[in-house]
Amino acid sequence: MAIMQEELPIYELTISEADEGNFEVDYIALVDRPAIQRNFQAFADQFVEPGESETQEEFIGRCIPAMIGEGYEQDQAAAICYTKWRDRDGMGEDFEESIKDIPDDVRANARNAVEWADKNGWGSCGTPVGKRRASQLADPSGAVSLDTVRRMYSFLSRHEKDLESSKSYSDGCGKLMYDAWGGKSGLRWSRNVLRQASEVKLAIQDSAQRIVSGALMIPDKLILRRDQQGEYFIKFSPETIKQIAIRFAKQGYQRNVNLQHDKDQRVDAVLFESWVKDSERGIGGMKGYEDLPDGTWFGSMKITDDEGWAKVEAGEVKGFSVEGIFQYERAEQTKDEEIMARIIDILQSIG
Protein backbone atom coordinates (compact mmCIF):
# COMPACT_ATOMS: atom_id res chain seq x y z
CA MET A 1 0.00 0.00 0.00
CA ALA A 2 1.39 3.40 -0.97
CA ILE A 3 2.29 5.71 1.89
CA MET A 4 0.71 9.13 1.54
CA GLN A 5 3.12 11.85 2.57
CA GLU A 6 0.42 13.97 4.19
CA GLU A 7 -0.47 11.09 6.54
CA LEU A 8 2.98 11.02 8.12
CA PRO A 9 4.77 13.64 10.20
CA ILE A 10 7.73 15.43 8.63
CA TYR A 11 10.77 16.35 10.70
CA GLU A 12 13.47 18.75 9.61
CA LEU A 13 16.92 17.67 10.78
CA THR A 14 19.00 20.68 11.68
CA ILE A 15 22.36 21.89 12.82
CA SER A 16 23.44 25.50 12.99
CA GLU A 17 26.77 27.27 12.85
CA ALA A 18 26.51 27.86 16.59
CA ASP A 19 25.94 24.20 17.49
CA GLU A 20 28.96 22.62 19.11
CA GLY A 21 30.19 19.07 18.78
CA ASN A 22 27.15 16.84 19.13
CA PHE A 23 25.39 17.39 15.82
CA GLU A 24 27.23 16.46 12.64
CA VAL A 25 27.73 14.01 9.79
CA ASP A 26 30.77 11.91 10.64
CA TYR A 27 30.66 9.06 8.08
CA ILE A 28 29.77 8.49 4.45
CA ALA A 29 28.61 5.00 3.52
CA LEU A 30 28.70 3.28 0.15
CA VAL A 31 25.27 1.67 -0.09
CA ASP A 32 23.17 -0.37 -2.49
CA ARG A 33 20.02 1.74 -2.05
CA PRO A 34 20.76 5.43 -1.39
CA ALA A 35 18.05 7.12 0.67
CA ILE A 36 18.20 10.16 -1.63
CA GLN A 37 17.31 7.80 -4.52
CA ARG A 38 20.18 9.04 -6.69
CA ASN A 39 23.09 6.75 -7.55
CA PHE A 40 26.62 8.03 -7.81
CA GLN A 41 28.27 8.14 -11.20
CA ALA A 42 31.12 5.69 -11.35
CA PHE A 43 30.64 5.13 -15.06
CA ALA A 44 30.42 7.38 -18.07
CA ASP A 45 28.00 5.72 -20.45
CA GLN A 46 25.03 6.29 -18.16
CA PHE A 47 25.14 9.84 -19.56
CA VAL A 48 24.33 8.51 -23.05
CA GLU A 49 20.57 8.01 -22.94
CA PRO A 50 17.88 8.32 -25.63
CA GLY A 51 16.35 11.78 -25.86
CA GLU A 52 12.58 12.24 -25.77
CA SER A 53 12.32 13.32 -29.43
CA GLU A 54 15.29 11.31 -30.69
CA THR A 55 14.81 8.59 -33.31
CA GLN A 56 16.50 5.20 -33.05
CA GLU A 57 18.82 6.06 -35.93
CA GLU A 58 19.82 9.36 -34.31
CA PHE A 59 20.44 7.78 -30.91
CA ILE A 60 22.42 4.78 -32.19
CA GLY A 61 24.49 7.08 -34.39
CA ARG A 62 25.35 9.18 -31.34
CA CYS A 63 25.70 6.37 -28.81
CA ILE A 64 28.06 3.94 -30.55
CA PRO A 65 30.87 6.47 -31.18
CA ALA A 66 30.56 7.63 -27.57
CA MET A 67 30.88 4.06 -26.27
CA ILE A 68 33.85 3.36 -28.53
CA GLY A 69 35.42 6.56 -27.25
CA GLU A 70 35.00 5.20 -23.72
CA GLY A 71 36.98 2.06 -24.60
CA TYR A 72 34.37 -0.47 -25.72
CA GLU A 73 34.86 -2.67 -28.77
CA GLN A 74 32.52 -2.07 -31.72
CA ASP A 75 30.29 -5.06 -30.95
CA GLN A 76 30.13 -4.24 -27.23
CA ALA A 77 29.25 -0.62 -27.99
CA ALA A 78 26.50 -1.68 -30.37
CA ALA A 79 25.05 -4.17 -27.86
CA ILE A 80 24.96 -1.55 -25.10
CA CYS A 81 23.39 1.11 -27.32
CA TYR A 82 20.69 -1.13 -28.77
CA THR A 83 19.88 -2.35 -25.24
CA LYS A 84 19.56 1.26 -24.06
CA TRP A 85 17.21 2.02 -26.96
CA ARG A 86 15.11 -1.09 -26.32
CA ASP A 87 14.91 -0.31 -22.60
CA ARG A 88 14.13 3.41 -23.00
CA ASP A 89 10.50 2.90 -21.94
CA GLY A 90 11.07 -0.14 -19.78
CA MET A 91 10.42 -2.42 -22.75
CA GLY A 92 13.59 -4.48 -22.48
CA GLU A 93 13.35 -8.17 -21.83
CA ASP A 94 14.91 -9.64 -18.72
CA PHE A 95 18.48 -10.81 -19.22
CA GLU A 96 18.66 -14.56 -19.65
CA GLU A 97 18.57 -15.94 -16.13
CA SER A 98 20.32 -19.22 -16.96
CA ILE A 99 23.56 -18.58 -18.84
CA LYS A 100 24.95 -21.68 -20.52
CA ASP A 101 27.25 -20.11 -23.10
CA ILE A 102 30.32 -20.13 -20.86
CA PRO A 103 33.61 -19.90 -22.82
CA ASP A 104 35.73 -23.04 -23.04
CA ASP A 105 38.77 -21.37 -21.47
CA VAL A 106 36.70 -20.36 -18.43
CA ARG A 107 35.49 -23.94 -18.01
CA ALA A 108 39.03 -25.25 -18.60
CA ASN A 109 40.45 -23.11 -15.79
CA ALA A 110 37.84 -24.38 -13.36
CA ARG A 111 38.29 -27.97 -14.55
CA ASN A 112 42.07 -27.76 -14.05
CA ALA A 113 41.55 -26.57 -10.49
CA VAL A 114 39.03 -29.32 -9.72
CA GLU A 115 41.22 -32.06 -11.21
CA TRP A 116 44.23 -30.88 -9.23
CA ALA A 117 42.18 -30.78 -6.03
CA ASP A 118 40.80 -34.27 -6.71
CA LYS A 119 44.36 -35.59 -6.75
CA ASN A 120 45.92 -33.42 -4.06
CA GLY A 121 43.00 -32.22 -1.98
CA TRP A 122 41.79 -28.67 -1.40
CA GLY A 123 43.67 -28.44 1.88
CA SER A 124 42.78 -25.20 3.62
CA CYS A 125 41.94 -23.51 0.32
CA GLY A 126 38.51 -22.26 -0.59
CA THR A 127 35.07 -22.16 0.91
CA PRO A 128 32.21 -24.55 0.17
CA VAL A 129 30.81 -21.86 -2.14
CA GLY A 130 34.07 -21.60 -4.06
CA LYS A 131 34.32 -25.35 -4.48
CA ARG A 132 30.73 -25.60 -5.71
CA ARG A 133 31.39 -22.77 -8.13
CA ALA A 134 34.41 -24.65 -9.52
CA SER A 135 32.35 -27.80 -10.07
CA GLN A 136 29.57 -25.77 -11.67
CA LEU A 137 31.92 -24.08 -14.13
CA ALA A 138 33.89 -27.26 -14.87
CA ASP A 139 30.73 -29.15 -15.86
CA PRO A 140 30.38 -28.89 -19.68
CA SER A 141 26.60 -28.61 -19.30
CA GLY A 142 26.69 -26.38 -16.22
CA ALA A 143 24.84 -23.05 -16.32
CA VAL A 144 25.09 -19.98 -14.11
CA SER A 145 22.69 -17.18 -13.22
CA LEU A 146 23.36 -13.49 -13.70
CA ASP A 147 23.73 -13.20 -9.94
CA THR A 148 26.49 -15.84 -10.08
CA VAL A 149 28.23 -13.84 -12.81
CA ARG A 150 28.14 -10.81 -10.50
CA ARG A 151 29.76 -12.88 -7.76
CA MET A 152 32.38 -14.18 -10.19
CA TYR A 153 33.28 -10.67 -11.27
CA SER A 154 33.41 -9.44 -7.69
CA PHE A 155 35.65 -12.32 -6.56
CA LEU A 156 37.99 -12.31 -9.57
CA SER A 157 38.50 -8.55 -9.65
CA ARG A 158 39.10 -8.47 -5.90
CA HIS A 159 41.56 -11.39 -5.83
CA GLU A 160 43.54 -10.71 -9.00
CA LYS A 161 46.33 -9.40 -6.80
CA ASP A 162 46.67 -12.87 -5.20
CA LEU A 163 48.31 -14.11 -8.41
CA GLU A 164 51.35 -11.96 -7.64
CA SER A 165 52.31 -14.26 -4.76
CA SER A 166 50.78 -17.54 -5.98
CA LYS A 167 52.12 -18.72 -9.35
CA SER A 168 51.02 -22.38 -9.22
CA TYR A 169 48.40 -24.57 -7.54
CA SER A 170 50.97 -25.83 -5.05
CA ASP A 171 52.02 -22.27 -4.19
CA GLY A 172 49.39 -21.30 -1.64
CA CYS A 173 45.68 -20.94 -2.34
CA GLY A 174 45.67 -17.90 -4.61
CA LYS A 175 46.17 -19.45 -8.05
CA LEU A 176 44.08 -22.53 -7.25
CA MET A 177 41.00 -20.62 -6.10
CA TYR A 178 41.36 -17.96 -8.79
CA ASP A 179 41.16 -20.62 -11.50
CA ALA A 180 38.37 -22.37 -9.59
CA TRP A 181 36.29 -19.23 -10.20
CA GLY A 182 37.23 -19.15 -13.90
CA GLY A 183 40.63 -17.45 -13.82
CA LYS A 184 41.56 -14.41 -15.88
CA SER A 185 39.33 -15.64 -18.70
CA GLY A 186 36.47 -15.66 -16.20
CA LEU A 187 37.22 -12.07 -15.22
CA ARG A 188 37.07 -10.89 -18.83
CA TRP A 189 33.95 -12.92 -19.57
CA SER A 190 32.02 -11.87 -16.46
CA ARG A 191 32.87 -8.22 -17.12
CA ASN A 192 31.55 -8.48 -20.68
CA VAL A 193 28.37 -10.26 -19.57
CA LEU A 194 27.62 -7.54 -17.03
CA ARG A 195 28.37 -4.84 -19.57
CA GLN A 196 25.88 -6.36 -21.98
CA ALA A 197 23.37 -6.50 -19.13
CA SER A 198 24.05 -2.77 -18.60
CA GLU A 199 25.38 -3.41 -15.11
CA VAL A 200 29.07 -2.63 -15.49
CA LYS A 201 30.25 0.31 -17.56
CA LEU A 202 33.46 2.24 -18.01
CA ALA A 203 34.56 4.68 -15.34
CA ILE A 204 34.22 8.42 -15.96
CA GLN A 205 37.93 9.18 -15.96
CA ASP A 206 39.58 5.77 -15.97
CA SER A 207 38.77 2.64 -14.01
CA ALA A 208 42.37 2.70 -12.74
CA GLN A 209 41.59 5.99 -10.98
CA ARG A 210 38.74 4.39 -9.00
CA ILE A 211 36.75 7.60 -8.62
CA VAL A 212 33.01 7.88 -8.01
CA SER A 213 31.11 11.16 -7.96
CA GLY A 214 27.57 12.14 -7.10
CA ALA A 215 25.11 13.76 -4.72
CA LEU A 216 25.52 13.20 -1.00
CA MET A 217 22.53 15.21 0.25
CA ILE A 218 19.58 16.88 -1.51
CA PRO A 219 17.72 19.75 0.20
CA ASP A 220 14.04 19.30 1.09
CA LYS A 221 14.09 15.71 -0.19
CA LEU A 222 11.60 13.70 1.88
CA ILE A 223 13.22 10.51 3.18
CA LEU A 224 11.02 7.85 4.75
CA ARG A 225 12.17 6.45 8.10
CA ARG A 226 10.81 3.56 10.17
CA ASP A 227 11.87 2.95 13.78
CA GLN A 228 10.40 2.43 17.24
CA GLN A 229 8.69 5.80 16.89
CA GLY A 230 6.78 4.57 13.84
CA GLU A 231 6.93 5.92 10.28
CA TYR A 232 7.82 9.50 9.42
CA PHE A 233 9.68 11.62 6.91
CA ILE A 234 12.86 13.62 7.45
CA LYS A 235 14.36 16.40 5.35
CA PHE A 236 17.25 18.85 5.38
CA SER A 237 17.20 22.53 4.45
CA PRO A 238 19.84 24.02 2.10
CA GLU A 239 21.38 25.93 5.02
CA THR A 240 21.62 22.80 7.17
CA ILE A 241 23.30 20.90 4.35
CA LYS A 242 25.83 23.70 3.93
CA GLN A 243 26.65 23.61 7.65
CA ILE A 244 26.97 19.81 7.50
CA ALA A 245 29.44 20.04 4.61
CA ILE A 246 31.46 22.73 6.40
CA ARG A 247 31.62 20.79 9.64
CA PHE A 248 32.48 17.55 7.83
CA ALA A 249 35.54 19.23 6.29
CA LYS A 250 36.45 21.11 9.46
CA GLN A 251 36.50 17.89 11.50
CA GLY A 252 38.63 16.09 8.89
CA TYR A 253 36.16 13.26 8.30
CA GLN A 254 37.05 12.84 4.61
CA ARG A 255 38.45 9.33 5.19
CA ASN A 256 35.50 8.12 7.27
CA VAL A 257 33.96 5.73 4.76
CA ASN A 258 32.23 2.40 5.31
CA LEU A 259 29.98 -0.13 3.59
CA GLN A 260 26.23 -0.19 4.23
CA HIS A 261 26.54 1.95 7.41
CA ASP A 262 28.56 -0.79 9.11
CA LYS A 263 31.52 0.86 10.84
CA ASP A 264 33.19 -2.54 11.12
CA GLN A 265 33.42 -2.53 7.32
CA ARG A 266 35.77 0.41 6.83
CA VAL A 267 36.70 1.30 3.25
CA ASP A 268 40.08 2.73 2.31
CA ALA A 269 38.79 5.80 0.48
CA VAL A 270 38.82 9.58 0.70
CA LEU A 271 36.30 12.26 -0.23
CA PHE A 272 38.73 14.51 -2.08
CA GLU A 273 36.18 16.86 -3.68
CA SER A 274 33.23 18.42 -1.87
CA TRP A 275 31.00 21.31 -2.89
CA VAL A 276 27.48 22.66 -2.41
CA LYS A 277 25.61 23.88 -5.47
CA ASP A 278 25.03 27.63 -5.25
CA SER A 279 23.98 29.41 -8.45
CA GLU A 280 24.36 32.88 -6.96
CA ARG A 281 28.03 32.16 -6.25
CA GLY A 282 28.52 30.53 -9.64
CA ILE A 283 29.00 27.04 -8.20
CA GLY A 284 27.19 24.50 -10.33
CA GLY A 285 26.24 20.89 -9.82
CA MET A 286 27.31 17.91 -11.93
CA LYS A 287 26.61 16.62 -15.39
CA GLY A 288 23.80 14.13 -15.06
CA TYR A 289 22.37 15.91 -12.00
CA GLU A 290 21.17 19.12 -13.64
CA ASP A 291 17.73 18.69 -12.08
CA LEU A 292 19.01 18.88 -8.50
CA PRO A 293 18.48 22.23 -6.73
CA ASP A 294 20.78 24.72 -5.10
CA GLY A 295 21.90 23.44 -1.72
CA THR A 296 22.70 19.93 -3.01
CA TRP A 297 25.95 18.60 -1.55
CA PHE A 298 28.13 16.90 -4.18
CA GLY A 299 31.35 14.98 -3.77
CA SER A 300 33.95 12.81 -5.47
CA MET A 301 35.56 9.86 -3.72
CA LYS A 302 38.80 8.06 -4.53
CA ILE A 303 38.52 4.37 -3.55
CA THR A 304 41.82 2.55 -3.08
CA ASP A 305 40.26 -0.39 -1.26
CA ASP A 306 40.22 -3.42 -3.62
CA GLU A 307 37.12 -5.01 -2.11
CA GLY A 308 35.24 -1.72 -2.00
CA TRP A 309 36.03 -0.95 -5.64
CA ALA A 310 35.04 -4.46 -6.72
CA LYS A 311 31.62 -3.87 -5.16
CA VAL A 312 31.29 -0.62 -7.12
CA GLU A 313 32.19 -2.31 -10.40
CA ALA A 314 29.90 -5.24 -9.69
CA GLY A 315 27.00 -2.88 -8.96
CA GLU A 316 26.67 -4.07 -5.37
CA VAL A 317 26.91 -0.49 -4.10
CA LYS A 318 25.36 2.32 -6.11
CA GLY A 319 25.43 5.53 -4.12
CA PHE A 320 26.39 7.59 -1.10
CA SER A 321 24.55 7.76 2.21
CA VAL A 322 25.54 10.05 5.07
CA GLU A 323 25.25 9.22 8.75
CA GLY A 324 25.41 11.40 11.82
CA ILE A 325 23.53 12.98 14.70
CA PHE A 326 21.01 15.80 14.25
CA GLN A 327 18.41 17.83 16.06
CA TYR A 328 14.82 17.05 15.09
CA GLU A 329 12.29 19.81 14.54
CA ARG A 330 8.71 19.13 13.50
CA ALA A 331 8.47 20.67 10.04
CA GLU A 332 4.72 20.57 9.60
CA GLN A 333 1.57 19.03 10.96
CA THR A 334 -0.16 16.02 9.48
CA LYS A 335 -3.55 16.62 7.92
CA ASP A 336 -5.35 15.08 10.92
CA GLU A 337 -3.37 17.26 13.32
CA GLU A 338 -4.14 20.34 11.26
CA ILE A 339 -7.87 19.56 11.37
CA MET A 340 -7.73 18.91 15.11
CA ALA A 341 -5.90 22.20 15.67
CA ARG A 342 -8.62 24.04 13.75
CA ILE A 343 -11.36 22.34 15.80
CA ILE A 344 -9.59 23.36 19.01
CA ASP A 345 -9.31 26.95 17.76
CA ILE A 346 -13.03 26.98 16.94
CA LEU A 347 -13.98 25.54 20.33
CA GLN A 348 -11.76 28.05 22.11
CA SER A 349 -13.28 30.92 20.15
CA ILE A 350 -16.78 29.70 21.04
CA GLY A 351 -15.85 29.45 24.72
Question: How many domains, as an integer?
Answer: 3
User: How many helical elements?
Assistant: 10
Residue share in helices?
25-40%
Approximate shape: globular
Q: Rg from C-alpha positions?
A: 25 Å
Order of helices and strands: EEHHEHHEHHHEEEHEEEEHEEH
- Mean pLDDT across the residues is 75
| Percentage of β-strand residues | 15-25%
Order of neighbouring strands in the sheet with most strands: 6-7-1-13
In total, how many beta strands?
A: 13
Query: Low-confidence stretches at least 5 residues in length (pLDDT < 50)?
Result: 1-6, 42-47, 89-97, 198-206, 346-351
The class by helix and strand makeup works out as alpha+beta
Largest sheet: 4 strands, mixed
Give me some keywords for this one.
351 residues; alpha+beta; four-stranded mixed beta sheet; 36% helix; globular; disordered N terminus; disordered C terminus
Explained architecture:
This protein is an alpha+beta fold and 351 residues long. It has three domains: 5-42 and 207-332, no CATH class; 45-86, no CATH class; 98-196, no CATH class. It has ten helices and 13 strands. It has helices at residues 56-69, 74-86, 104-120, 128-138, 146-159, 174-180, 183-196, 238-250, 306-313, 335-350, and strands spanning 10-14, 24-31, 98-99, 144-145, 211-217, 223-227, 230-235, 257-259, 262-266, 269-276, 297-303, 319-325, 327-332. The protein has a four-stranded mixed sheet, with no helix packed on it. Strand 6 (223-227) and strand 7 form a beta hairpin. The model is unreliable at 1-6, 42-47, 89-97, 198-206 and 346-351 (pLDDT under 50).
